[in-house]
């Protein structure tokens, strides 16, 4: 019988751990065939796949012999863990095999056990910020038994809490920094056992298999889309937000916050955000109404908010009145729901479901895997609601409530939001062709975009037709911060990427009239590699490279800015250079002379803020939501563009450079002056005047660029290209000059994968593919070939 292999790897720290094993289903055992530990020094994204291929070559095993993939989930370096999981998802989804996750720390513990160590052990992983991830184990002849869940603590405080010389064996990469700090607490393991190796990963898989918590042959249970890293804490932005909101100081709670709107189903015009101390009294009042004698008072609510093992969310109506709240306690890997209530006038609108999902999302990032709660035995309605979330009764607490009524204990999975993918609503096929082609025109290329806060996938055929175009936007997760939070963006990309790709494949299959498409049916796989948020880019690059390797097809990398140039081909497929293109987005503002596809000259760019960035900052100064561009645009349509004469920065600079910082400062200064004088702000007039100042400079410099280059075609690209007033101004200018104007459809102005697919097709046809050692890059020069 042909062996069935499991491939295991981990990149949570400074090494790459690789393991290849044979699965024996009759004994639920894993036979280690090969094990490696390779120094990576923060280069695992460039070394991982070549190392895997070398391992398989040495073992004489082909890709199609892999029946399961296992990867380390951390805890460890956030970037390292994400590289591992994104790569594992790409391999497993392309091979259509289960993906099993194991703890990086468990793998180290099993290595200690295999090396003959017995008794108590402590594994410490470096958590940065002078913190460590500690887990204790009991090592025996049979097992490396974990004694506690993952957590994160200050290294100094944890070391001081340990008894000196109690015989514990200590390992883990945190010892590279803190060996002296922990040396008196026990004995240090040999240095070669401080980081994981493939054999340890395989042993951890075997232990979980024998315990019944994993099954390496169950593809449904171990769908690659379901696996997530072990984080043990929220992002810095969320942690700082919790500290800020737990203070009772007055604050403008609406700044940077966007209404949930239609994304939350029936709970329209309801705003969700973490509970703050300023609304503790409102919670207490609703508590008294909903909970009777078991209600918490204001002091108890305020006491809860700063606790790091708690998560509290609230719902507000359009007037800012609190209409619901939910809170939970994360302990021992479980979320315990402490409170949930909704104002009677707002019930049956889905608010409770969203609130509990927001708490559950935080709990998941803090290490929770399941959820529990107590509910009155007589409250059949609440029990039915929890049953709809897959909770089931497991017991009773007699006389639990103040009136001595029994409580029914219910447990279930974390009740996360049910949207299309990873809590995000998908926009599907906005740029795709409307009619199915008569025949499939190869090559078929999958493109992935993850440079900022959209996870997107598209499939293009050999004729340049977009067969499928899928985008999952993270705006709802960033809105309350007034801008994109890089750490949150990276986390959501890991969570969403498999689902987005799968929906894209299904959509393309339906368009082609075939039963199914898989990654193995692609002729190439491509992705954005630069520029952008490097943590977000890393996820897309790691996934796409791994999927290309597993499908045994070429990998094509694409410059994100070049994608915005190509987005115009969605509207006008036959367009040909030369042309001048205005790229205006949240991160870029430039005029580009496209002499030919792949031959670009930057005529001028911003010396400070980008246009989209200026829109966001002005919107924030006005107390409006994020993203600021659409909000400013809507207000401006109602205002007088001549009401306030804001400066037209660099209008007469004699070159094609831009500056938005001075304009932004002028607007904010005007706002502050008006407030100081007690004047009511005329938001439409301010928005219209600011927008006009931006547009006047953009159009004037674009006209100069057309005159200097002699180009007879002008195009737009980037998120700000969706601004109606800007588009109208360019239409007037081009009509006056007799220049053809091409603009991408509104859906293709924001980040999408269709534009990446268009570039990828050209690069593939030109033989411009990349090796599996390619990496993400935060910055790149559009003029330089790649």
TrEMBL record:
PROSITE patterns documented for this protein: GNAT
Annotated localization: Cytoplasm
InterPro entries, per database record: AcTrfase_RimI/Ard1 (IPR006464), Acyl_CoA_acyltransferase (IPR016181), ATPase_NBD (IPR043129), Gcp-like_dom (IPR000905), GNAT_dom (IPR000182), KAE1/TsaD (IPR017861), T6A_TsaB (IPR022496), TsaD (IPR022450)
Enzyme Commission number, as recorded: 2.3.1.234
Predominant subcellular localization, coarse grouping: cytoplasm
Cofactor, how bound (note): Binds 1 Fe(2+) ion per subunit.
Record family assignment: Belongs to the KAE1 / TsaD family.
The protein's name: tRNA N6-adenosine threonylcarbamoyltransferase
Organism annotation: Denitrobacterium detoxificans
